Amino acid sequence: VKMERGKFQFAIDRGGTFTDIYAKCPGGKSRVMKLLSVDPSNYPDAPREGIRRILEEELGVPMPADDPVDTSHIDYIRMGTTVATNALLERKGERMALVITQGFRDLLHIGNQSRPKIFDLQIKVPDVLYEDIVEVEERIILHQERCSLNINSDVLVGSTNEKLYKWTKLDENKLRKNLDALLKKGIKSLAVVLMHSYTCADHEVRVGEIAMEMGFTQVSLSSKVMSMVKLVPRGFTGELENFKNIFSCVDAYLTPSIQKYLAGFQSGFDENLKNIKLLFMQSDGGLTPVDRFNGSRAMLSGPAGGVVGYAMTSHNDQPVIGFDMGGTSTDVSRYNGQYEHVFESTSAGVTIQAPQLDINTVAAGGGSMLFFRSGMFVVGPQSAGAHPGPTCYRKGGPLTVTDANLCLGRLLPEYFPKIFGTSENLALDESATRTAFEALTVDVNEFMSSANKSHEPLSVEQVAMGFIRVANESMCRPIRALTQAKGHDTSRHVLSCFGGAGGQHACAIARSLGMTKVFIHKYSGILSAYGMALADVVHEAQESAACHFKQENISWLDSRVAHLSNQCLQELKSQGFSEKRIELEVYLNLRYDRTDCALMCSPVAAKSGNFSKYGDFLTTFTNRYHSEFGFTIPGRTVIVDDIRVRGVGKSGVSVHKNEPTSDGKNQAKSTIQCYFEDGFQDTSVYLFENLSPGHKIVGSAIIIDKNSTILVEPDCIADVTTDGDISITIGGGKVNQVGTELDSIQLSIFSHRFMSIAEQMGRILQRTAISTNIKERLDFSCALFGPDGGLVSNAPHIPVHLGAMQEAVQYQMRELGDQIKEGDCILSNHPLAGGSHLPDLTVITPVFTPEHETPIFFLANRGHHADIGGTTPGSMPPHSTSIKQEGAVFKSFKLVRNGEFQEKGEISLKPKFVISKISTSKIQNYFFSIQGIHLVNELVETYGLNVVQAYMAHIQSNAEVAVRNLLRDVNDPKSPHVVSLNAQDYMDDGSMIKLRIDIDAEKGSAIFDFSGTSPMVLNNLNAPKAITLSAIIYCLRCMVGYDVPLNQGCLTPVNIRIPKWSILDPEETAAVVGGNVLTSQRIVDVIMKAFKTCAASQGCMNNITFGDDEVGYYETVAGGAGAGPTWHGRSGIHTHMTNTRITDPEILERRYPVILEKFQLNPGTGGGGEYSGGDGVIRQMLFRKDLVLSVLTERRVFAPYGLDGGQPGKTGNNLLLRHNGPTINLGGKNSVEVHPGDVFRLLTPGGGGFGSPTPSTGEPPTKQRKVKDDQTFVERGSVFEYTQQQEAH
């Protein structure tokens, strides 16, 4: 963008703590300024104040702070802001109501029904944004060829070419009455979310018209905000927008906050910036005029500028990892010539459908708090924030990463702003930091001495350095995940570092990741602001398609692309861009039929043939699919979900400016003592402002910039580029020898490395799997085991798999012994062999070295397969009485022998219970998980086998310490050493699970004795022994209350006694499918009851299946969570041993022959108490053809208990409403034929209450109370989404 003669250009990032300002002055001079974002005693608005100060200083003309700023010298202002994000986090948006299809009033409360943190008994989910709900009597349904219902409605065609019916007409009179009631409450903002409005928006548009006529000032239509299939995310996104009239959108919840801020900002200038180009950064990395800036596209407004900044300045011939480490969070992203976007993301509990840069907030930053816990060094995730901040901020804050850097001499107080103390004029407090570290060092040495008498005490600096090393390793993990998840080699990237804290860690992180280059821009401290100066103006248009990508649809797709392209062209032309400066990027959102992994694909040039006139999209799709997932599916139909056009108005800003070359050797400002791995070293200190292109700085050195500190570590060399930036070449560094003796610092590092191996194995398996359950539902676990078969690390953590795979590995060691050879992979699923239920197949891979004849480690993965056979589809028969009725059974089957896949392996069972052949095409994908072997070998090559195996044992011992500390806290004053806890509960068939726990509080040990538990049963509620082990580990981890390594050490202090041939240890022929999904929940209920930790949750997974020869569907359904001593139970949520996400209503109706009539909370089903249990749900489906329905449920007879005077939750119910016939109670377990028009109504149990109810607490709460999380940053991005999805089953 050419600067108007003699005018200033401003780019501003208004962050939560600081506001960064970059100004391009007339004549080419650049100015940088950093101000506190909120400083009311000195100025009303930081961006305006920064502009005023720069204008005053550069022009030499007084500009009184109280007067409107003269805008005659301003060309443009570009801004990014956290106002929208803060309003969402703090729930300070506009008062609003939700208008939704009848039967779905609580859909956005339930969401996908999974809980965000699987080990948190107090389930913390942010409040919904609306305060009232209106249900609309209307219904659109999709046409289905296989539907046998008699539908009296004309077939219509939606915008996606899908056929549909207007099943129920819009009741306008009832709607007006309900909307009038909202107006009388003072609510004038609405979000309208109706079923299938992505393809037929008629009803939504009419609701919008009526609302505007009645006087609502802001109305959002989900179909206008983001016309993509999936009701839940579209509904959340719609909450963030506002429908002003039928053709333009502003914000309903967030934009009012933005508008209020903008009004205040603009009022500080002449004529409210009337003739000034005011542009705002959107989450997708593009700028937009202020009047088009809306809430759902503002979530990453500030961080997006940083991505643009490093993309425009760092990328050359190597892909780049952006590493933005600030005070409270660290953002990680990737760029390789194209911005990487996500189109559905979750932030602060809200799922948003809108294009956003894939920015992963993966860890806390300089303010991460430091802990020494159960023998481990722990960094974060809790943050000290700005208030009180680190210890050195003189506000009584905790020790943080910033304090550790200060203690080591890596932060120099004399170059840090003197803004601390009561008068805000003092430097960082080194003495306070050192005093706090001295006290922490005493604790560390006392613990280490108790574990090892010969332990040599650590110095203060060694402890501080330990925390830095652990912090660095914790930040390496998500970077590996971000790159390797998509098949990229992490070591081939450049690390582009920016943000205030990143320069102190960049060299160490790059070295750990195998990178050889670090790039730090001269404006790294304000790169988000600088990125806005470089950014282009963007306008996007998108619509759903829902068609097959085949020749007969190409012309229709081209016409829709042309329509959207014209929208973008006209919009950008209206903003002053000529057609020559506009680039159009065309994308199709493609996926294989019967999969959920859609990829947004741009075309490559078409060589020849019948392609779209815009290019070859299919080649891009197949290449990307193969790159990310390791295979393609030839012959499978490709679906076009969405069409997207991104119009880019090019700014044309040049980022390269050759600075004057140095004419001599640069002199260090000073030399200080800085602490590294080898102790204190002489370290030269340089001022960035004194450096010129050509200068070469050999580490160790510190480069002081105005807004950041850069540490050049030993064996690294920093060069100043021709543009005046810093390029650091990373040397190998000295490798410190690590011994086998326990070292708390190394223990913490190995904990991260072991977990990273398990996580990367999972990524490899997910990328290479064909199975939908593995690839998309991520229903699997990967784990690493020691030479004794003991679990070392299990990631991600799936409750019902915890501990169980260890039993599977150790069974094979006992069964096969020295028959386990290199190149073998062993398949197992039998309960006797450590299995859970038959669909969960476990593949075990031994790891050998040439020097060892026996395995040095084991790798294993367990994944759910729906095609394992049995008497009903889905291998979940409700009436099975023998394991043979549940599918194919394997104890020890060598899937791979001597490196050769046993492709002809065929298993046949008795004729009536047939599975003639296991689908080897799906099982084969497990073979790829043995790539995890090289990850283990890399660790061995780095540290040596003895050290790695020693730390496997140490990490197990650490988990043992954590559990022993928990057991010591269970103390009865009358029996100071031995405490006995007792509990029992019942399955609906009357089977009792009885438990006595004897705790030796002095030793921190316990006996879990299930004597008295009922014998095994002639149904499928029998639970293999491994399930009880998993339930105990899960409960112990929940009660510990913080992250501990989940491995066999958790059970070392526990002696488990289970009576043989009881329901918890049945004979090998017993049916077990219900034990895995139902009895496992009751075991948890009994343990929690014994410890009096919390009331019972719904205690059921509510397993529902339906299908025929053509189609099959399986789901588990949420209920109420139990209340605890300080919290209400969450309503409509999955609890304990499951966390399955539920299929979105629109996807369900698109793929399966059902109509979902209702999915909402069932008020009053949670037990009353001082703290009330959560409510269950009502889920009601109408069938469109003949099918077989199966239900496998519990808590239909015995209610979820309350505790300490709390009332029990209500039991559930399974009802079948025959079309024009009776209502039938199906009981808890049944299989029945259903016909067109029949309705299944599922009522799930509520959670128990806690504490005696009082008049004010007797009724369950109608709304989840707000809970503040002690984690002060909000995780986001594709890595976070993957983890959430992985923990959601």
Automatic annotation (TrEMBL):
InterPro entries to which the protein is assigned, alphabetical: ACX-like_C, Hydant_A_N, Hydantoinase_A, Hydantoinase_B, Oxoprolinase-like
Residue segments, region Disordered: 1245-1271
Compositionally biased intervals (Low complexity): 1252-1261
GO biological process, one term: glutathione metabolic process
Occurrences of domain Hydantoinase/oxoprolinase N-terminal (ranges): 10-214
Domain Acetophenone carboxylase-like C-terminal: 550-714
Domain Hydantoinase A/oxoprolinase: from-to ranges: 248-540
Pfam families with a match to the protein in the record: Hydant_A_C, Hydant_A_N, Hydantoinase_A, Hydantoinase_B
An annotated Gene Ontology molecular function: 5-oxoprolinase (ATP-hydrolyzing) activity
Record-annotated Hydantoinase B/oxoprolinase domain positions: 743-1253
GO cellular component terms, semicolon-separated: cytosol
PANTHER family: 5-OXOPROLINASE, 5-OXOPROLINASE RELATED
Membership in a protein family: Belongs to the oxoprolinase family.
Descriptive protein name: 5-oxoprolinase
Organism taxonomic ancestry: Eukaryota, Metazoa, Chordata, Tunicata, Ascidiacea
